[in-house]
Amino acid sequence: MSDNTTGADEGADADVSRSVDWTNAIGDGGLVVVSNRQPYSHTYGDDDISVEVHAGGLTAGLDPVMQAVGGTWIAWGDGDADREVVDGNDCVPAPPDDPGYTLRRVWLDGEEVDDYYYGFSNQVLWPICHSALTNVTEWERYWEQYRSVNERFVDAVEDHTEAGDIVWFQDYHFALAPAIARERVDDTVLMQFWHVPWPAWDTFRGCPHGEAILEGLLGNDLLVFHVPRYRENFLRCVETVLGDAAVDHETGTVQYNGHSTQITEFPMGVQVDEIAERASSDEADEFWADFTEKYNVADTVAIGVDRLDYSKGIPERLRALEQFWERNPEWRGKLTYVGKSSETRSRIDSYQAVQERIEAGIERVNDRFGTDDWTPVLSFDEYISKKALASLYRHSDLALVSPIRDGMNLVAQEYVAAQGDDDGVLVLSDQAGASRLLDAALTVKPQNTGAFTDAIERALSMRGAERRARMQRLREQVSENDLAAWTWLNLRAARALHDGDGSVREPGLPTGG
What we know:
This protein has 2 domains: 2-9 and 16-269 and 483-499, Glycogen Phosphorylase B (Rossmann fold, 3-Layer(aba) Sandwich); 272-480, Rossmann fold (3-Layer(aba) Sandwich). It contains 20 helices and 19 strands. The chain is of the alpha/beta class. The strands form 3 sheets. Strands 6-7-5-2-8-9-10-13-12-11 form a 10-stranded mixed sheet, sandwiched between helices. It is globular, with a radius of gyration of 23 Å. Helix 14 (349-369) links the parallel strand 15 (335-342) and strand 16 (377-380). Helix 11 crosses helix 15 (386-395).
């Protein structure tokens, strides 16, 4: 069996996170994580079965924790060879090369994937949470499968949970699971992190089955959002929809159906030290030299890293860049915008539509301003290593992060972490959760093309002293709120609730010796 990781630096990440005393964070019980995507999948190669590491923010944060405490991670088994390696209980040791915990796989057939994942999760809850009501598409079968799949995941939770455990649900795929689990498992802490925004009541009122969604989430003992406004939006929705709920806005406590749920916020971060190390590596330097030569990149570079999602504001960004080159012809040939993209959910019509808009926008800008030896917008979607991505961040003079709506946006923080001693400028949408944390960024409203263009002009003309001061403050903010701190706060809050002290804010990040 071969190891085909999606990033070459996994070992370094785990070593840093293992230095934290995670067993102290969760107490005497175990940890059960429930997520839609799994940290590892098995696929058929040419001659054998390969292991793919899904190196996203959640996996990077929780995989080393799970290795330290020896818990169970429950996820959808989506690899084509996943069934070949599990035991009779649908479990496989993880990580495959150095087992430290159990990965329990839940199987979904084609209809379940279409209706639970592409249907209710991503054509109902995703657009609702991102305030895109016109993109909501709902069929009754979506809801039926969503409810059924949530019950199936709770079946797996029952199999792997004992008294005193923490069960940590992740994201909007499992809005019903906590209330279901509340009826089935005893003496456990049920908690959930909601990775996307929570909308205001006037938007949420358009959510099909909204009352059931709220009741499901209130099955948690602890429900955590990125920033205070999402927390407050949720409390107001509960207050409006569930007339019997007692809502305390000051403490964030909701009493409903004889159960108390604590609502709070912990902003999610990134692995700051690891990203900085990658950005300064020899591989990163080699990548940048090869990349700039291959694509004839201009001396000044702007970067954008996105999934091709309608919430990311990419067409708006392209309009601002087009207007920038129109207003500033002296920058033609001197600035290259590099768009590193990844395709997502392309079978959904609204995603296909925005991908077509992006392609048309790139073609329009390049046709209008490009020359034989300069391409204004360089867009590519091929896989690159973590070190190569960090190299793109580090060598870019400005980052354009312009979501229409975003729960946090880790790209903004990754850019800052990769800057090291360099002094790039972060241009950040005020609709990203990260804008509350990163107050030294240049903040823009993505749909205001003129102001967005002004921000690009300001970033490129900013004096060195101001650039250095802004980036130093951003680095401090990102470092203080890194991924390990986020994980620690969530787990310590769960333990505090279990121990009955009522405190969900435990400062500091003590390390093991």
